[in-house]
Amino acid sequence: MALSLLRQTRCLCTLSRTVLAFQSRIGKRSYAERVDIRGGSLEPVVSAFCAVVGDDGVSLGATVREQHGKDESVHSCRLPDVVVWPRSVEEVSALAKICHHHRLPIIPFGTGTGLEGGVNAMKGGVCFSLRKMDRVLDLHQEDFDVSVEPGVTRKALNTYLRDTGLWFPVDPGADASLCGMAATSASGTNAVRYGTMRENVLNLEVVLADGTIIHTAGRGRRPRKTAAGYNLTNLFVGSEGTLGLLTKATLRLYGVPEAVVSAVCSFPSVQAAVDSTVHILQAGVPIARMEFLDDVMIDACNRYSALSYPVAPTLFLEFHGSDRSLEEQVSIAEEMTRENGGSDFSWARDAETRARLWKARHDALYAAVALRPGCKVYATDVCVPISNLPQIVVETKEDLIKNHLTGPIAGHVGDGNFHCLMVIDPDDPDELQRVHRFTERLARRALALDGTCTGEHGVGLGKRELLREEMGPLAMEVMQGLKATLDPKNLMNPGKVL
Ligand SMILES: Cc1cc2nc3c(=O)[nH]c(=O)nc-3n(C[C@H](O)[C@H](O)[C@H](O)COP(=O)(O)OP(=O)(O)OC[C@H]3O[C@@H](n4cnc5c(N)ncnc54)[C@H](O)[C@@H]3O)c2cc1C
Questions:
Q1: What is the pTM of this model?
Q2: Choosing a second label site near 221 at 20 to 30 A (CA), which of 230, 256, 273, 406?
Q3: Contact 177 CB / ligand 1 (< 6 Å)
Q4: 115 CA from centroid of ligand 1 (Å)
Q5: pLDDT, tens digit, for every residue of 101-124?
């Protein structure tokens, strides 16, 4: 008892000291503008947070704030003023009410693997780390669905499902939180067969900026389809923390395929690789993964992952099904690829070889960094109708060469979505400018080919102007109206998307 009291006193003393240090550090003006609105000081706000989540659920420490002010992008880090760790939806709601009362920005934080600066605290404010809400709830095996709290990552969910014969297939490579994935409308290598987060979220529990808790498809509901009212679920999927905090997601699950076969195949040209993709899809082969790597990317993967594939445009393929159906799928795909000049096939049936192959693909970003040690990668993505893919890839490669930029290309080619992994020296402002202009040209090329400026990474900080070009003024006005209705004080992740 005495020991616990002593610990508590120490904890509170430390907190008070940190609060004082924090007050002097953040400077009177910015603080006064945001927190002193009702003539109060920071201490009551922090005390109010502590009353909800306890002293250990609030941090003002610089290192913690730095960890929560940046993601995996090259956007510079903007620190939140405070980080909080709620453990339940009620706590999220209570904290949001305090922020709403004091007009403090709210920045939701999943695992920080985003690639467009989504967690940067542009106007300071409170970072809500949802890591401690990490329970898998309500698994319905017979209905193929499950609900998860926002701290559950995709790998943790699949580990939980290991003995059920079910899995969640959306796979952005990084071990992101499932609600972060919903917030960015993530997809990845399996989307050609299983869809993106948009197709796989059945319901969301959301805490709005004023602390109101809503369920986008009705509380506890999980039908496979619905024609009831506006599609609120998909309004929040891809909203990047600007409309509310996602505190629970109900997700579709799939049966683990009986058999899996992967393959790697090289092509004489980008056109030949993409033509094969189109032909395989047109033949109705239910292919699970179709990944394109250009010659620069496969070369980087060879070096980084100790592989020895030919340095040429390459497809990584994967087929899921029963043993019998796989035979048919594989033989059609092999025929189509050979007709398009594909060669150097290597097939992998055993789990270990497949895992090595896909690990190499998922490590593409790190393989790209290794091309220029000491540099960073700015991964930018666009998506076009699949028939326009060869044109945009060829033009983009010409652009890279002309501007002396290193940007290996890897793409979820079955969806017409691809990434340029721009390797840049962050200390070279001239190179940063050239890369910035390149990414804008790339996005505008995608728009000119009826595509989008981002297929899966989101708008975040970097693509707001491009979103306006993509949507046009009237659709933007509708988006702004929705934002103003749900978040009239503009507290949810301000400075992003719109
Ligand atoms: C090596 C690597 C490869 C990647 N490959 C892909 C890929 O193939 N496909 C792909 O789609 N992405 C890819 N990504 C990007 C990233 O993994 C996704 O954007 C992911 O969905 C981000 O999830 P997170 O939990 O890390 O979110 P964070 O980075 O923490 O946040 C991202 C955004 O979502 C908001 N947010 C987070 N959690 C919530 C919540 N609970 N409620 C409301 N808003 C929230 C944040 O405010 C922020 O705006 C890759 C990243 C890396 C590092």
A1: 0.91
A2: 256
A3: yes
A4: 7
A5: 999 999 999 999 999 999 999 999
